Every structure is written in C-alpha cells, then in structure tokens.
UniProtKB/TrEMBL annotation:
Keyword Membrane: yes
GO cellular component: cell outer membrane
MF annotations from Gene Ontology: peptidoglycan lytic transglycosylase activity
Coiled coil: none
InterPro entries recorded: Lysozyme-like_dom_sf (IPR023346), Solute-binding_3/MltF_N (IPR001638), Transglyc_AS (IPR000189), Transglycosylase_SLT_dom_1 (IPR008258)
Ranges for domain Solute-binding protein family 3/N-terminal: 42-267
GO term, biological process aspect, one: peptidoglycan metabolic process
UniProt similarity note: Belongs to the transglycosylase Slt family.
Subcellular location: Cell outer membrane
UniProt protein name: Lytic transglycosylase catalytic
Domain of life: Bacteria
C-alpha cells in the first residue's frame, strides 16, 4: 500500500471548494425533491469545515453534523455524497443551484434566506458566552465584566462585545487578538491555561472545548438567542418533511445520543500515570515489545514507549472518543490497513506492531526531512493528527516563507493556525479545519517524556 493511500477516506465523500452547473430548474432554482433523489440512489449533503460540523481526524471524516447526516441518509436507504464548501453563503448558493440537496449544518435562520430555503430538522438555539475558568469568584452577571480584560478574535465576537460594552456604558477592556497568529480556540486554550482570564465563543464551540479543558466555565450568556437548523430548497418540501420526521423520531435514539456525547461530553484528555518502576528500570509491562519493534523504525524504544503512554497510558483496553483503540490508539481503518486482524485491535503486540508499521509509512512520507530527530517530530504530529493536516501546514510554511522541513517556529506555527478559518481555507490546504493546539502539545509531550525516560531508564 502506498503511504498516501492511508489518508483517502473510504466512503462516498467528495470535497470541493466551489459549485458549478445546474440540474432541472424552476424559476432559477433546481427542481429536485425526495422522489428524484431516491431514483438516483444518492443524496448530496453540503457542509463547511468546523469543529461542530465536519473535519478530518487521523485520516477519517468526523463531526457532529456529519454523523447526523450519515444517520439520516442511511435511514432513507440512500448513499451519501458530501460536498464541503468554504462558507455558509456559498453553501446556500450551491444548494439553490442544485449542486447539493441538503445543508447539514446549523445554518442561521434569517429573513434573507427564508424565500429560498425550507429550514428543517432540529431547531438549535445558540448564543455567545463568556469563557472563563471555574472559580468561586467566577462572573455571574454581564455587569461584572466592567474593568475586566476580555480577549477576542476580530469579527462577530468582537462586535458583540463592543455592543455589550456600549449597553453597559463602557468599562470592559476589550483586546483584539491578531487573527494572523491566534484563533478563537487558541484564546479558549489560553483561558484554560491561565494565560488570560476571559474570552468569548458560541456555546457549541465552548462545549466542545470544555471536553478538552474541564476547568472551563461557560455559563455566562452575553448575546440574544440565535436560531439555526438544517435547510433544503423551497422546491424540496418532501425532503424537508423527511428530515423533520427523522429528527423528531431519532433525537432520543441511542445512536443520536452517542454522537452528541462523543463531541460535547466525553473527556478528550486521558488521565496519565507514572513510570512503573524507576528502581527496576521498567517504564511499562510492554517494554520488551517496545524494544523489539522500535528497531524496525530506527527509534529509541523509549520514544516509542512515550508515544504509547501519551496515547493510551499503557492501557490496551482504552477506546478514545473518536474510536481509536489499543495501546497505540490506531483508528479502525488505519489499524486494518496496517494488517491488524479485526477483533485484535486491543491486543498489545498487534497494536504495537501495527503502530510501528504506520510510523514506518509516515517516515517514508516525510523522508525529505533529513534530520532524524526533526523527522520524528513530523511523524509524531502526523500520527496524532493525520498526515494530511501536517502536509497542509508544510504547504502553508512554504507559502509564507518558512522552512517546510523544520518543526518548531516553522511548520508547527501553521499547525497551530489550522483552526483559523483564514488558514484552513487557504488554497494550499486540502484537509480543512484542524485543532492544531492538541497536536502541537502532543509532539512536545512525547519528546519531553522520552527525554525523561532516557534520563531515568537504561537502554
């Protein structure tokens, strides 16, 4: 198998950046409804990249709205084709032109689009919130923002804060983050880490981030409610009825609840323990396996052990929020591509053997990174994020005058920026939204822990 073959999504997903062409139209709008869609056997879903809608994680498609769309399309007995576009305005244009059948995204319900769309499915109520750390002294009322420093990204969060400041008669110290170097999710991370005290986000984004940082308090609402839902064309009333019915009947189903829990409730940060026995020179119960298989990739076995520890805390039975399994936390498709038999994903030796085979493929992919220590950082980043996001960051580094073969301050800088719309929508990027902070920290933690192992544990 070629290295890049791992990163192809083995499902009917098509990523595009623009929509062209028309099907049959009535009054300038495509005239396609559920009977026509059933006849062709495929429903085309439109969405945009984002933490709550759709993203590529370790080479596999994920996202809350993506999963719900899959469930809905499956209920109709149809195949799903996904088109990912750049923004909501383009999504609506593509829908009206007939280049998609359904918008699976929390699209704001506005008068401007009501003449062209039928809003359908579950109606969501969203609002902006203050993100702060949990504390007895936490803000409980917007008036307490006076004389506080609040850091926000330019755009809707800044605009809302300015309006709120005017309503309060002034006093909020508003700081605008540089959009070229800091994303809204970076600011949330800074709050969690204590670098700043307050920022602003939508409640959905805040809920997802709280699964990474349980110390966040997101209870203080600062905006009016905004209604949103899925949408279809005005010429697709039967499809709208089907979406309404499916949401009504499935919102309490185990599958629907499992998807919601995966993205908005499950803790994304596994707990970690300590070295098994410094005195006996043991890192884990699996040291002999790490020694055996690390030789195949030319790694110090303690670096491989550090990777496994960071992934699973040496627990072979753990299953991550995204479905990764075993000591090496391989995603199901990757595990099977690496030759791990079905049902053996949590077998310690099979997991380590499969993980090492995957690392070997990543080493080939990043063979142009000549320095082996430097290459290990690229491999670790790709192991954690999926290679596509790292090659995107390399392309961004090259475009903006950085060295695409150096990690720190070069490619790592653009890994951190890939949750920022301006960067993940750059034409050189092929893999969309990505939460880069986690991968940056992952590389730092694995390397740092390996150095600690090397200092304490003999080869």
């Amino acid at each position: 198998m070629k290295p890049l073959a791992l990163f192809c999504i083995a499902c009917a997903v098509l990523l595009v950046s623009s929509c062209m062409g028309k099907r049959g139209t009535v009054g300038g709008e495509a005239d396609t409804d559920l009977p026509d869609i059933r006849e062709r056997g495929e429903l085309t879903v439109l969405t945009v990249n984002g933490s709550t809608s759709y993203f590529n994680y370790r080479g596999e498609p994920m996202g809350f709205q993506y999963e719900l769309a899959q469930q809905f399309v499956r209920s109709l007995g149809l195949k799903m084709k996904l088109k990912v576009v750049n923004n909501t305005a383009e999504m609506v244009r593509c829908l009206i032109r007939g280049e998609g059948d359904l918008i699976a995204y929390n699209l704001d319900i506005t008068p401007a689009w009501k003449d062209s769309l039928i809003y359908c499915g579950e109606e969501n109520i969203t609002h902006q919130v203050i993100v702060q750390r949990r504390s007895r002294d936490g803000l409980k009322d917007v008036t307490q923002l006076i004389d506080k420093d609040v850091y926000v990204s330019p755009g809707k969060y800044y605009d809302r804060l300015v309006h709120l400041n005017e309503e309060l008669g002034g006093g909020i110290r508003i700081h605008t983050a540089d959009a070229d170097s800091v994303s809204a999710e970076d600011l949330i991370t800074w709050v969690a880490e204590g670098k700043i005290d307050y920022t602003v986000a939508t409640d959905e984004v805040a809920k997802i981030n709280r699964t990474y940082y349980p110390n966040l308090d997101i209870s203080l609402v600062i905006s009016f409610d905004q209604r949103s839902s899925w949408a279809v064309r005005k010429t697709s009333p039967l499809l709208a009825e089907a979406a309404d019915k499916w949401h009504r009947e499935n919102i309490n189903s185990p599958e629907f609840k499992a998807s919601a829990r995966r993205y908005f409730e499950l803790n994304k940060q596994p707990a970690h323990g300590s070295i098994l026995s410094v005195k006996d020179g043991k890192i884990s119960h699996y040291d002999d396996l790490f020694r055996k298989y690390a030789k195949e990739i030319g790694w110090d076995w303690r670096l491989l052990a550090s990777l496994a520890y960071t992934e699973s805390n040496f627990n072979p039975n753990v299953v991550s929020w995204a479905g990764a399994k075993g000591l090496m936390q391989l995603m199901p498709a990757t595990a099977h591509a690496m030759g791990i038999p079905k049902g053996k994903e949590q077998d310690p030796e099979e997991s380590i053997k499969g993980g090492v085979k995957y690392i070997a493929q990543l080493q080939k992919l990043f063979r142009k990174v000549a320095d082996k220590d430097e290459q290990a950082k690229f491999v670790l980043a790709a192991y954690n994020a999926g290679a596509g996001h790292i090659t995107d960051a390399m392309a961004l580094a090259k475009k903006y005058g950085k060295n695409p073969y150096l990690w720190e301050h070069h490619v790592a800088h653009y890994v951190l920026l890939k949750s920022n719309e301006e960067y993940y929508q750059d034409p050189v990027c092929k893999n969309g939204y990505f939460r880069g902070t986690e991968t940056y920290n992952f590389v730092r933690d694995v390397i740092g822990r390996a150095e600690m192992y090397q200092a304490k544990i003999k080869r």
